Amino acid sequence: MKEQLLKIFQDHQGEYISGEKISQELGCSRTAVWKHIEELRRNGYQLDSAPRKGYRMVMRANGIHTHEIKQYLTTKFLGRELTYFDATESTQQIAHKLAQEGAEEGHVVVANEQTKGKGRLGRVWHSRSNTSISMSMILRPPLPPQKTPQLTLLAAVAVVQAIKKNTGLQCEIKWPNDILLKGKKLVGILTEMQADPDLVHSVIIGIGLNVNQTSEDFGEDIAHLATSLYLEKDGASGQPVDRARLIADILLEFEELYEEYLENGFQSIRPLWESYSISVGTYIYARMIKEVIYGYAKGITDDGVLLVEDESGKTHHIYSADIEI
Length: 325
Ligand code: BT5
Known about the structure:
Elements: H1 2-11, H2 19-26, H3 30-42, E1 46-50, E2 54-59, H4 66-70, E3 82-85, H5 91-100, E4 108-111, E5 132-139, H6 149-167, E6 172-174, E7 178-181, E8 184-196, E9 199-210, H7 229-232, H8 243-264, H9 270-276, E10 282-287, E11 292-300, E12 306-309, E13 315-318, E14 322-324
Helix pairs in contact: 2-3, 6-8
Biotinyl-5-AMP is lined by residues 90-92, 114, 117-121, 123-127, 134-136, 177, 185, 188-190, 206-208, 210, 222, 225-226.
C-alpha cells in the first residue's frame, strides 16, 4: 500500500491530490489514507496538507526501505525478493545465510547502515547510515567456479551505467572491483561464492556505494581516497541523489547484462567493460599477497583474468590484486 501511495505522489509531483482521489486509487477508506500518510511522515517524508486541496509531497525521505525501492523496480527477478535492514553488520553475511537456507536467485539484501562492512582480504568497508548504499545480490548461475570473477566485472559495468543514467557522472573501473570517480574510490564490489570444486551453489555480489556523503562523513583513514556522488555532482551544492532509484537502476542494469552474459558469454560484455576501464592499455603495479608485478596491462581474458607483460616480455595471469596506475 505504501508503495502505491508513493507512486501516486511520484506521478503528481508538486501537485495537491485530494484524499478522496487517493482513497479511490488505493481502494481504501479516507481514514486508511490518513493513516498511511501519517506513516510516510514518520518515515521522514514531508507532506503538506491543505483544506479542500488534499496532500502534496514537499520532500522525499531518500530512504531505501523495500517499498521505496520497489516503486522504481522494473526487473523481472532481481530484487523482487528484498530483505531490508536499518542497520546490520554486513549485508554480505546475511546474504550468505539466506543462500544457505535456500534463498532463490535474485534475492537481494539491502541495508541503510553496515556496522561491520567487509572488503576483500578482511579489510573494512565503511557504510554510513542514510548516505550510502550497501547491498548484496544472491545469484545461482550455472557456471563453473573459475568463471565467477566475471560477475564482478558485470556488476562494475552495471553500476557505472546506472550512475551515468541517474547523475550524468562518468565513472571508471579499476580492475577488478573498484569504481573510481575523478581518481577517488566511489564503489567497492565484493564477489564471494558457496561452491564445491566443480559446482557453484551461489554467488553473492556485494556492492558498497558512496552516495550522499559530505567530506566530513568520511573517517580519517579514507578521507583522502574516497568520494561520493553528491561531492562530485553540481559542486556538492545540488539535491542529494535518490538512493532507492539508483538501487533499482543498478538491479535493472545488472539483470540485463546477466541475461546477456548467460546467453552469449563474456565476449558480449567485454567491450563495455573495456570502454570504462582505466586499468588496461597502461603500465601498472599489481600488488598481490606475496609479490608485486610491474608491467603493461595488455587486457583481460574471457575469464576476467588480467594479463600483465613485465619488462622481460613475460605475460603474467593476475587473478586478484590491488592495482596502482
Ligand atoms: C572492496 O574491498 O572494495 C569491497 C567492498 C564491498 C562492500 C560491500 S557493501 C555491501 C556488501 N557487504 C559487505 O560487508 N561488503 C559488501 P577492497 O578492494 O578490499 O577495498 C577495501 C578498502 O577500501 C579499505 O581498506 C579502505 O581503504 C577503502 N574503503 C573502505 N570504505 C570505503 C568507502 N566507503 N569508500 C571508499 N573507500 C573505502
